[in-house]
Structure to design on (650 residues):
């Protein structure tokens, strides 16, 4: 792709990096009534993170992080978030395509419903999932009867809860990218004999890959931090459904030092995600 | 594709029979209605010429199947295509800005069509390589589209469209995206490739020069309807609408002929003397260079074909000055910079315009 030697993790967008223009002489003459709250706001956002770093039990940190519970929770978190992201990709990208490229009655409503989990309190999502997929749920009872599949309070349940919360992020991101992409490439592919699906697979998907990647990272980060839906739908069993956020919450009550250590790990992961997306976000506008 | 693959012997003059294109395209959309009939024999190059918004591109998209027909029919080599989805039509399209897939190399862009038609990856690539070689692009096979110049991209787009062996090749403003310098070369190359193409080619353009150089026959579309069609030379000599007259650079008037005199319709009656002996509704055309301007009413010139006008505007036109005149007869006149200066022409000035009967051309409307 581009000749610049940037890390490949960056969702290398066409047009190349446009960094280095962030501060371009707009600092002069910022009115005080704007500057003061702005600085306060910045401090408000950064101070807690700073406190986390300052108060971290650096001396005992290696021991905290090498304990089996931490590794168990971390492994489970990474596994479940990754699975939830895959589920979101498999279901969410086609959903985004349908929302962006087709026109059907009630499309606006469907779109609104897709975004509902974005604003829904995750605990409510968890309750709703129990009612739908729980052992006595609307669909869950059939799953149990016919296939012997039980989702609540299992690792698969964690994946379901995380995907429920995270998929809208992916759908919205991919739909936006699709809308920005030129649909005439699909037409060109069609005139070359490609079916609509082939056109999607061989032309559209590669073209929107950066957007899909960004959406996937976003969904993955959201899944990693998921708490409410997970604990409601999947419970809190160490090694099976206890993900990092759950174990942070639990540790906070018994072993605050461990909670801080776990939080630091999650913070590091978040920063890594942000770094991976910097081209997309930090150069915006 | 090699020459031995061809099944059609060569261009057959004149539309008709089973071969070629036979279409009536009706597309209704909001307040716009397109209704054009297009026929072309195999080997023929048809140019759809018209102003922006006339419906040329819509006609092209209807031929490709990207826009559904509201009415009419579409037959290609005797086969009905109206209900055939675009991916199953034997139609190749060169889009205005080419729409080369940016993530694929030139070779894979050209191989895309054969792949979709079921060729194996290596066979498709082999065929694509052959096409690129024919276009003189063999060394750019592995370049991504954004590394190609405008002219090269145009040829890759043409190769990509031809690689599916279409029976109908559509070109949407094939030269519009090129700068003037490249245009000259690409136009000549495109002309050669179109001459070699054995099936029907339809190109859309708003540039009369492209149309005349590339096409065997012009179809002029205005407001969704065909206003004139014929050989380029015929259309250039005998325009039938103001738009075409402007394109080919002629003053055009419609009137009623009685012998050598044509009485022009609108406004106060104006007579034009012509050489042709005609009766009934006619067009009168003459080039702006045939118009002579005088500041005072010329004494020695006969009163025939002499009109009092006012200069509405002046602009440079090549190395000439073109004067737009209003008054008894609205017309355009070309004159040299020197004579423009001598006449002291400026907007608002009154002038006398005359044209010799021998330089006019009248033909039935």
């Amino acid at each position: 792709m581009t000749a610049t030697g940037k890390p490949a993790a960056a969702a290398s967008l066409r047009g190349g990096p446009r960094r280095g223009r962030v501060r371009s002489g707009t600092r002069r003459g910022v009115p005080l009534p704007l500057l003061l709250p702005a600085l306060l706001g910045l401090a408000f956002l950064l101070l807690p993170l700073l406190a986390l770093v300052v108060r971290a039990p650096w001396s005992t940190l290696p021991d905290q992080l090498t304990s089996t519970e931490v590794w168990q929770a971390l492994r489970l978190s990474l596994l479940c978030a990754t699975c939830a992201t895959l589920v979101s990709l498999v279901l969410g990208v086609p959903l985004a395509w349908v929302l962006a490229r087709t026109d059907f009655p009630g499309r606006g409503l469907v779109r609104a419903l897709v975004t509902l989990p974005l604003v829904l309190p995750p605990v409510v999502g968890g309750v709703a999932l129990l009612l739908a997929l729980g052992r006595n749920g609307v669909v869950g009872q059939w799953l149990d009867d016919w296939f012997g599949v039980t989702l609540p309070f299992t690792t698969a349940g964690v994946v379901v809860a995380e995907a429920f919360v995270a998929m809208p992020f992916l759908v919205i991101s991919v739909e936006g990218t699709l809308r920005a992409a030129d649909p005439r490439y699909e037409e060109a592919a069609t005139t070359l004999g490609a079916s609509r699906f082939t056109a999607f697979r061989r032309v559209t998907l590669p073209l929107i890959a950066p957007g899909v990647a960004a959406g996937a990272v976003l969904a993955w980060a959201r899944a990693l931090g998921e708490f409410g839906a997970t604990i409601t739908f999947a419970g809190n069993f160490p090694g099976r459904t206890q993900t990092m956020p759950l174990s942070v919450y639990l540790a906070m009550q018994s072993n605050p030092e461990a909670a801080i250590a776990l939080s630091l790990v999650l913070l590091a992961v978040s920063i890594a995600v942000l770094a991976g997306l910097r081209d997309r976000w930090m150069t915006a506008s | 594709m090699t020459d031995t693959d061809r099944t059609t012997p060569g261009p057959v003059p004149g539309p008709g029979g089973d071969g070629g294109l036979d279409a009536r395209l009706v597309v209704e959309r909001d307040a716009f209605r397109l209704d054009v009939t297009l026929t072309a024999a195999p080997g023929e190059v048809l140019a759809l010429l018209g102003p922006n918004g006339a419906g040329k591109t819509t006609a092209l998209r209807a031929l490709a199947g990207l826009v559904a027909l509201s009415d009419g029919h579409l037959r290609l080599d005797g086969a009905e295509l109206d209900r055939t989805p675009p991916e199953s039509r034997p139609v190749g399209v060169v889009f205005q800005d080419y729409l080369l897939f940016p993530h694929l190399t030139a070779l894979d862009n050209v191989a895309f069509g054969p792949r979709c038609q079921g060729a194996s990856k290596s066979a498709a690539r082999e065929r694509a390589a052959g096409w690129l070689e024919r276009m003189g692009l063999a060394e750019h096979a592995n370049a991504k589209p954004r590394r190609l110049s405008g002219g090269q991209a145009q040829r890759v787009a043409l190769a990509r469209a031809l690689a599916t062996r279409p029976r109908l090749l559509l070109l949407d403003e094939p030269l519009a995206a090129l700068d003037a310098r490249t245009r000259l070369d690409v136009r000549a190359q495109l002309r050669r490739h179109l001459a070699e193409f054995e099936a029907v080619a339809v190109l859309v353009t708003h540039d009369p020069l492209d149309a005349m150089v590339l096409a065997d026959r012009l179809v002029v579309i205005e407001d969704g309807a065909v206003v004139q069609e014929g050989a380029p030379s015929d259309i250039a000599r005998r325009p039938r609408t103001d738009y075409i007259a402007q394109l080919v650079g002629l003053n055009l008037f419609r009137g009623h002929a009685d012998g050598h005199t044509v009485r022009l319709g609108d406004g106060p009656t104006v007579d034009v003397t012509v050489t042709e002996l005609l009766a009934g509704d006619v067009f009168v055309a003459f080039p702006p260079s045939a118009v002579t301007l005088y500041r005072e009413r010329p004494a020695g010139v006969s009163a025939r074909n002499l009109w009092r006008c006012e200069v509405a505007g002046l602009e440079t036109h090549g190395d000439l000055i073109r004067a737009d005149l209003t008054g008894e007869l609205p017309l355009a006149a070309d004159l040299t910079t020197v004579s423009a200066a001598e006449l002291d022409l400026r907007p608002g000035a009154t002038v006398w315009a005359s044209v010799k009967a021998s330089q006019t051309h009248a033909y039935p409307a």
The longest strand of chain B covers residues 270-286. The two ends of chain B are 47 Å apart (CA to CA).
